[in-house]
Amino acid sequence: MNKTQSAKNLAITALFEQAKRQADRTALLIDGQAFSYREVADIAAGYARQLIALGINPGERVLMAMPDSIGFVGAFFGIMSVGAVAVPAAPGLSQQAAQHIIDKTDCKLALAATSSSLEALENCQLLFIDCQSRVPFPRDTADAPFEVVERSGDDLAYILFSSGSTGPAKGIPHRHIDLLHCAKAYADPVLKYQSDDVVLCVPKLSFGYALGCNLVFPLLSGSASILIEPVPTQEVLEHNARLQPPTIFIGQPRNLVAMLESGPDGPFNKLRLAVVAGEKLSPTLAQRWQEVFPGVPLLDGYGTTEANAIFISNTPDASKPGSLGKPLAGYEVQLLSGPEMTPVKDGETGELWFKGDSVCREYWQDPVATAERIRDGWVRTGDLFTRDQDGYYFLQGRRDDLLKVGCGDWVNPLSVEAEIQKVDKVAESVVVGHPDSDGVIQLKAFILLVEGTRPTRRIRDEILTTVSQAFEQTPSHHIKQIEFVSSLPRTSTGKLHRQKLKSHTQLEFAYQC
Fold it and tell me: Which residues cross the membrane (predicted)?
């Protein structure tokens, strides 16, 4: 799959060349409907011809407010085919968010699904698309001459936008070669896609993690991807798995709970590999996975939109429970701490910085964020890690998620959540700081139970007891309030949106000594 030595327009490398080699193989599966490599290439060419007719020139940006669909794939490669720059956006993009992206990137055109709520946009043409159609445009452009515009590997290909959980979303530019670097470092040696693989991925294609794992990497390897347009609830995931059993599952730890309930004889009985990222995988959940799916490796890893894909990962041959693995080839990682940002020793907590072949050089037209987060090629993540003597990395939470409670004690909510996850029937938990009646910040847990489980006093008491016993010597870590919820707030990329559950800032707390 490694094509980094001859990098060119990604549309050629990932799609058009592959369509020549394996025209009739299935590339995409959408609600049971199969699209061959040739058909996907033809649809992308149709989008390219329409973009040319609309006057889109090389280098210009085109917003894609489209769900995971044949339309998204056709538009993504069609935009790059004409030398323009794709700007994928999360499904359900709001008017305000769309205008922010357009203002940031100076998009000349916005392609939106007919189901979109977008209205007229300032300084940008808006075109609604039937994303399910194989022929979404008038046939008078179908026979127009078309040739893919030459691009080098270092030319700009697309701009991804962060989920913006702590402020306005930032544009993260990536080159045509970046996902090829990710394939060389991650897809080839870790996931090892095979031509007969079928990939089911929970994150949406507008998220860099899925853009690689569920589109470009499978195309490069000749395998097939399942695309899901609606919100990927467990019911939706199981429906799609029954239509076409996946061999590779890519999601988040919360997705595993219901998969374990369905068991090894359920719709995921063909799995050979499962991958999670985006949230911390509790050791308890990982152990349950090994018991129910003993022959299916469960790989946890870490990546960012700035890197475009995972760059720290466990592998089938080298993993350690509780860790996110080791840095992959082509990437450098360091843990820094203190005002002087000095390297920490093994076992000590530090903030993760990284650099590597696929990493963005800047935030799009945002010199302030670039100066704050990117220095000499190193990207500052805000995530806290420890590294053990064997070189494995362990996530300890985010700098801005640490809580100061009680008598000024610092609490890492992930450590408390890991204990809560040991309680049977708990699907997910989020621990935040919450003021009590005296204004003192104490720990509050939001609990999402396994589907079909009714909240009871027994479960509540078991959670309180489990946490208090685990932190017998540190009462500041004890849960004081519990609230059972039917859902948890998430960013557009599916990550927990802790800020929406927090009721205080680090400057608004009281002590009780």
Answer: 70-90
